[in-house]
Write a structure and sequence with these properties.
The complex is a heterodimer of chains A (112) and B (113). Chain A is 0% helix and 51% strand. With 112 residues, chain A is mostly beta strands. In chain A, strands 2, 5, 6, 10, 11 and 12 form a six-stranded mixed beta sheet that branches. In chain A, strands 3-9-8-7 form a four-stranded antiparallel beta sheet, with no helix packed on it. Chain A has a two-stranded antiparallel sheet with strand order 1-4. In chain A, strand 7 and strand 8 form a beta hairpin. In chain A, 38% of the residues are buried. Helices cover 0% and strands 53% of the residues of chain B. Chain B is mainly beta and 113 residues long. Chain B has no helices and eleven strands. Classes of the chains: A mainly beta (112), B mainly beta (113). The interface between A and B is medium-sized, with 24 and 24 residues.
Amino acid sequence: GDSVTQMEGPVTLSEEAFLTINCTYTATGYPSLFWYVQYPGEGLQLLLKATKADDKGSNKGFEATYRKETTSFHLEKGSVQVSDSAVYFCALRDTGGFKTIFGAGTRLFVKA
Amino acid sequence: KAGVTQTPRYLIKTRGQQVTLSCSPISGHRSVSWYQQTPGQGLQFLFEYFSETQRNKGNFPGRFSGRQFSNSRSEMNVSTLELGDSALYLCASSLGGLGNEAFFGQGTRLTVV
């Protein structure tokens, strides 16, 4: 079945460091791919998305490119801030559009 | 535009009891999904409803059930509660298609004692 694998955390960075959180997926067809972020005590919020191969999603300085050849959707940010500390989830929506499958989440700590 | 609303926010129940959680989706959204979030298991898919029909179901026992009403509001029921059912239950709504993202509520924190 479809699945999402993302790097285990926690990831600890200093402010202004470069961030990469790896995400790979297994799916039939052409799923849509998403990154969600969860701040403490809150639900998940959509960070960015890509719906077809080579699409780049971007928001708030975060970027991710849909790579079909490597079945990956890695999240990057050039310069993290303390306020970026949260849990990040990679997800795919299956080709039928009936289910969104999430990775295990990666907790990010950013130190001042 | 109002977001996804889940009620109640917090619940404490005793083992063996049953519980009903409620979710009101964003206006116009016909798809509602439910997830269980725990520290050890992450986000686990429970089920998804679209226009009152369950379209998909995760690997949970029959004690977990749900339904969706004609106004797209959804309820989730858990019977014969177990300690392991303690979790954050998240509801998400969407337009339902392939490229449409899910919008999440803040969740219901269920504690079973």
